[in-house]
């Protein structure tokens, strides 16, 4: 170690880097992306869609079963009937 060497080179930077915020996607956005992906004729178009939107293929892999699950739940829900007057 040289005495002429400044001390500031040895002190670590105390600044804490901000943690990246997790992106949140609305249900409408997810459905729109899934519809576009399903309408694509080949994997090249899906890759272009993912790149354009800044998404990963894992997003589609996660969203597709959730969409199917949501449709199944919607089909099982009873249709609400308006209450009738007991008179």
Number of helices: 3
Mean pLDDT: 84
Largest sheet: none
Q: Which consecutive residue ranges, at least 5 long each, have pLDDT under 50? A: none
The gyration radius over C-alpha positions equals: 26 Å
Q: Based on DSSP secondary structure assignment, what is the total number of beta strands?
A: 0
Describe the structure.
It is a single chain. Helix content is 51%, strand content 0%. It is an all-alpha fold and 87 residues long. It has a domain at 26-74. Helix 1 packs across helix 3 (57-76). The longest helix is centred in the last third of the chain and has 20 residues, at 57-76. The chain is elongated. The N and C termini lie far apart (97 Å). The relative contact order is 0.08. The mean pLDDT is 84.
Task: Offer a few descriptive terms.
51% helix; 87 residues; elongated; 3 helices
Explain briefly what this protein structure is.
By secondary structure, the chain is mostly helical. It has three helices and no strands.
Layout of strands and helices, then pairs:
Elements: H1 27-39, H2 43-53, H3 57-76
